[in-house]
């Protein structure tokens, strides 16, 4: 299913376009190592990021501050109806592990 998240306008001289990806591999004790990238549809006046995902998938979104080189990052879990629920990174890891266990069944 197509999962989307709205982004408001931003200053393109300071920020890069928003981004989104779905986590597909997360090694023990490390950061996610493999992802599937989605895309941004819009411009500096606003738009949406979208990626193909299923309920239970873990999604990561962000936007790079070009002055500092750091990204503002958010973690999400896809709900049954396609909406996204905000979670913290450590919670995202738990949801990812749970979805991997269910796929193995």
3D architecture notes:
The chain contains one helix and eight strands. It is α+β, with helices and mostly antiparallel strands and 105 residues long. It has one domain (2-104). Strands 3-2-6-7-8 form a five-stranded antiparallel beta sheet, covered by helices on one side. The protein has a three-stranded antiparallel beta sheet with strand order 1-5-4, with no helix packed on it. The radius of gyration is 14 Å and the shape is globular.
Indicate the multimeric state: single chain
Series of secondary-structure elements, N-terminal to C-terminal: EEEEEEEEH
Tell me the span between the first and last alpha carbons: 22 Å
Helix content: 10-25%
Shape: globular
Q: Strand sequence of the main sheet, in spatial order?
A: 3-2-6-7-8
Q: Tell me the major beta sheet.
A: 5 strands, antiparallel
Query: Total number of helical segments?
Result: 1
Radius of gyration, whole Å: 14 Å
Residue fraction in strands: over 45%
- How many domains? The number is 1
Total E-strand runs: 8
